[in-house]
Design brief:
- This is Pyridoxamine 5'-phosphate oxidase Alr4036 family FMN-binding domain-containing protein.
- Pfam families: Pyridox_oxase_2.
- It comes from Cercophora scortea.
- InterPro entries: Pyridox_Oxase_Alr4036_FMN-bd, Split_barrel_FMN-bd.
- By secondary structure, this protein is of the alpha+beta class.
- It has six helices and eleven strands.
- Strands 1, 2, 4, 5, 6, 8, 9, 10 and 11 form a nine-stranded antiparallel beta sheet that branches. A two-stranded antiparallel sheet has the order 3-7.
Length: 282
């Protein structure tokens, strides 16, 4: 699982950071452990209608800007990219991975599943709802298959990544994923060696060699943990910001991604960079 140095061309380079980015990061930094609620759509069977699922996740920073961690021994990518794309991590064996990837097993990279991430910044009395699609980055993220899920993930994320100075030499997708694994504590890395989540304890012997609770993983290339580990990136299409700090004058704004169109479509909307902003009733 060694990082490779594969360069992939941009099809579009976002012009400026999202106008909500700095305030969002300031608010999220005030949340204990930076937790949020992630909602996905779960389909009990191929013919059944989708049903909502929600769980608490941990915000791991923005894609391309790996948060610094002096305890992380993983090699870092050069500071080439930045983005406005929230990252969290998950175990591929959990249902949300399949719900996001559209594949029950979610063996490789893929995605496009609709999600909503809800952050409550109590210190600022503000709720942030991030709506869009999510993309799973697996061990094959540097794969070159013409029809592979990894290629599609890279194409989608590159559309929303900014290259400082236009230089991309030496930047590796796999290295960035390993960096996120390394940013976890050894105990958290050890959870990826847990028995399969959601399987009844009385179902029989734990399948898989080396699985068990309470393990600590120091090796950043631990084969069992890395097989189960996934980084997940959210590509926002809407940001819903509700400022409830003043109960007599609550305010709410909706940000909609417009890309390079630069067109107003909402009554009273204002285009700021690649986003349209409009104030709505709270």
């Amino acid at each position: 699982m060694a990082a490779t140095h594969i360069m992939h061309p941009h099809t579009h380079i976002p012009c400026t950071p999202a106008p909500w980015r700095d305030l969002f990061l300031r608010h999220i930094s005030s949340i204990p452990q930076s937790t949020f609620v992630l909602s996905t759509l779960h389909r009990p069977s191929p013919t059944a209608p989708p049903v909502p699922r929600a769980r608490t996740c941990v915000f791991r920073g923005l894609w391309g800007s790996l948060p610094p961690n002096e305890r992380n021994a993983a090699p870092r990518n050069p500071p080439v990219y930045e983005s406005d794309l929230p990252v969290f991590t998950t175990d591929v064996r959990m249902e949300k991975a399949g719900e996001i990837a559209g594949d029950e097993k979610a063996a490789g990279s893929g995605g496009g599943g609709l999600v909503e991430a809800v952050f409550w910044a109590e210190e600022f009395g503000t709720q942030w709802r991030v709506r869009g699609t999510a993309w799973v980055l697996g061990p094959d993220i540097d794969g070159e298959e013409e029809e592979g899920g990894a290629r599609k993930v890279r194409e989608v994320l590159l559309e929303r990544m900014r290259a400082e100075g236009g230089q991309v030499d030496g930047w590796s997708w796999a290295r960035e994923v390993t960096g996120h694994f390394g940013n976890l504590s050894p105990a958290m890395r050890g959870t990826f060696r847990n028995p399969p989540p959601g399987v009844p304890i009385q179902a029989g012997p734990v399948p898989g060699e080396g699985l068990g609770l309470g393990q600590a993983v120091e090796d950043l290339e631990d084969p069992v943990a890395r097989e189960n580990f996934r980084a997940v990136v959210i590509v926002p299409t809407e940001i819903d910001q509700a400022d409830l700090s003043d109960p007599k004058r609550p305010r709410r704004w909706l940000w909609v991604f417009r890309g390079a169109s630069y067109k107003n479509t909402l009554p009273g909307g204002e285009v700021v960079g690649e986003w349209e902003k409009v104030e709505v009733w709270p």
